[in-house]
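Pasting as-is:
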Amino acid sequence: QVQLVESGGGLVQAGGSLRLSCAASRRTFSSYGMGWFRQAPGREREFVATIRWNGASTYYADSVKGRFTISRDNAKNTVYLHLNSLKPEDTAVYYCAATSPGQRLPDYWGQGTQVTVSS
């Protein structure tokens, strides 16, 4: 029912910045909680950040707190992740996810966008 398409990944130097975007396919996007996850080679998927449906609150993994910022523009059906002060260990495929009202875990996922941070 919901399609999510990530964009904005690429190769950046350590200490650099990048902005990821996630575009959703339906107007009801505004009622969904949104989040970002990432998965590095040989590792399990890990939580990165989440934002409430109305943008009133956000939450970050300790590993990215103070460096990454999640935001959303409901009028554009788009969620963003600003990655600052990037480290090589941030290298991963980044996925956006949507959580429908009444659920705790995401029920829609994008295909991912690669972020590679060089040293």
